[in-house]
Request: fold
Amino acid sequence: MKRIISIASLLLILLPIIAQVGTKNFIDQPYIEINGKAEMEIVPDMIYLKVVISEKDNKAKTSLEKLEQDMLKSLKNIGLNMKDDVSVIDFTSNFKSYWHKKSDIYSSKEFELIAHDGETVAKIFTELEKLNISNITIAKLDHSKIEEYRQEVKVNAAKAAKNKASKLLEAVGQRAGKVIYMQENRNYYAARTNNMEANMLMKVSSDSNFKTNNVIVEFQKLKLEYEIMARFIIE
Reply:
């Protein structure tokens, strides 16, 4: 009885080994390795602006509270969503240093605004300039559906790899079979956030200036680029 059990146990150990010997490892099979590449350019629909208002920089010596009220009113009139597109990200005051230097006390606030197109960006610059608020910078460009576009480009890169493999093998009378290995080689997402003002293209008519309503602001497109390495069985 013990011998029968031992033989059965030995068979359970050997069966997987026997099965492996009878089946080729994928590395031993003929395959073709191909890189597939895909890219996409999209117009940003989330333009992040940083706005700093300060009593010190204000020539009219308007209080910070009044500056903030006027700015928020203008932004609301422009059409910004005051709940989702306007937020305070910093508040500072030199109150502590006043006692050491005996200088004027002043405060400043930093806001983050989100515009969804170039026309709105132009309106923000124009309206805030009227309030003598000029400390405005473009912080970042993004898109609300960026993840969906990323996945789409990855899929297109994989398809490009399969299409390239098929064409190359057709030339020698063979065809690409199932994929046995796939790896993402490169992930490239370029928003060009460095020196953003240099990437903001402002088209202004010859008889207008930045304070007019004739300003059209355009931004460089976001570029998504992915490369997929795939190995296909040669059939």
